[in-house]
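A quick aside before the break. I want you to see a complete sequence-to-structure record at least once, exactly as it would be stored in a machine-readable document. Don't worry about memorizing anything.
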Amino acid sequence: MVGKNALNVIVSKARQVDELATEVASASCEQTQGITQINVAIGQVDKVTQSNASSAEESAAAAEELNAQAATMKQSVIELLKLVGGGGLANNRIAVAPPTKASPKVKLVPLLSVQNGSNGHTHAAPKMASTENERSQIPLEGDFKDF
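That is the input. The structure line, written in tokens, reads:
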């Protein structure tokens, strides 16, 4: 009977090994699914990172272009101010004073007027006009009544 008892122990141990192998297989399957999900997530992070890098590069290029346009605009305004009398320039900076609520004072600011030369051609020349505030201005739409 010792043989039959030993055989029962062997069968019991074999079943335990089978159960453990099944658990290992199940855990391996779950790990494979987890690794697959991680790979998908890493792929998505990579796409977002590439998109952000591309957007940052485009933003840098746009900022550089805007900076160049601002420099061109600044130079144009400086040249325009020189053309109309040079008021408002200090060290190549355009000074714009905020509007004041004090009593209005009349101040002369350069505007562009048209004069006839001795040869009959018209030439643009600075003309002085009054304003109701204390800051130099570039003539706006309503300031062209004299033309």
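Two observations worth writing down. Helices lie at 2-83. Residues 47 and 114 are 62 Å apart (CA to CA). We'll return to this after the break.
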